[in-house]
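Human: I would love a firmer grasp of how sequence relates to backbone shape in proteins. Could you go through the record with me and say what the backbone is doing? Here is the record:
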Amino acid sequence: MTIEKHELKVSTTGSAGSASGSSVLAVPLSELVACYVDYHGSAPSTTDLTLKSPGNPVSVTLMTLTNTNTDAWKYPTVNLHDNVGAAVTGAYAAPVVHGNITADLAQCDALTDAVVLTIYLRV
């Protein structure tokens, strides 16, 4: 397995503090390893970011960052389960993504490249 690097930029439109935007990145069937979140220097601290995969058969929310404009590395994970479906305490794995990754921004200002995500996938 190799790790691929992808970039996803989201620009926003609308009024200050309530602008929103979304962008889609086509990706192969893979695991999300890491994501560097780089906010525009003028993005307000009210900015919300949601990273999702439409999945197959169901959509999965990979990460939600609320009321922040702080650049940071993020390592989204999902809880592992045992053979009867119960969550295993303290056991996590990289989430599987299928088809696309969607980034949605809300409560931002109108900005070009309000956030730039550098996404690392294990394929």
Notes: The chain has no helices and nine strands. The chain has a mean pLDDT of 95. The two ends are 6 Å apart (CA to CA).
